[in-house]
Specification:
By secondary structure, this protein is an all-alpha fold. The protein is elongated. It is built from 5 helices and no strands. 80% of the residues lie in helices and 0% in strands. Helix 1 crosses helix 3 and helix 4 runs antiparallel to helix 5.
Length: 155
């Protein structure tokens, strides 16, 4: 069961990674010309992704918190015994970043609901979206590397 949950957690993280990256590029580096794959990737309405990104972030965090006890018992113990302190520390930092991301979700939602013409809304929208994109990318990469170190909780 733990293996299934870890795989599901990873799949949700990949979908979230795609959505937040798509939105971050569309808001930070917009393109009105849809010729070419990279320009069309950036020339989308970023507000379409807001609710989906929030739902995916919450689902991924919830699933991560369900499998967290198995990580603490199986993987973290192994990493500490193997003296892989940088791996343990990077996961600790991931936990802190994800918590900050959870706290930023209401602001993220509010900024994407408001029209970008509001005073300071555009720069705040860009900043919050890029911070959430960084948090999601960092969490994904750390989780992927730790999974490669121990492999699906050593099951």
């Amino acid at each position: 069961m733990a293996t299934f949950l870890v795989i599901l957690h990873g799949l949700l993280a990949v979908v979230l990674l795609g959505g937040i990256t798509h939105q971050a590029l569309s808001v930070a580096w917009p393109s009105r010309n849809k010729s070419g794959i990279f320009r069309s990737f950036r020339a989308v309405s970023g507000s379409v992704y807001t609710n989906a990104n929030i739902a995916l972030f919450l689902a991924t965090v919830t699933l991560g918190s369900i499998i967290y006890p198995a990580y603490r018992v199986s993987v973290r113990t192994y990493l500490e015994n193997a003296r892989l302190n940088s791996a343990v520390g990077s996961f600790e930092l991931k936990e802190q970043f994800i918590t900050i991301g959870l706290g930023m979700l209401p602001l993220y939602w509010l900024l994407w609901r408001r029209p970008p013409e509001a005073a300071g809304a555009k720069s705040a929208r860009i900043a919050v979206t890029l911070m959430l994109a960084f948090i999601v990318w960092y969490g994904f990469l750390v989780g992927h590397v730790l999974n490669n170190i121990r492999g699906l909780f050593g099951l």
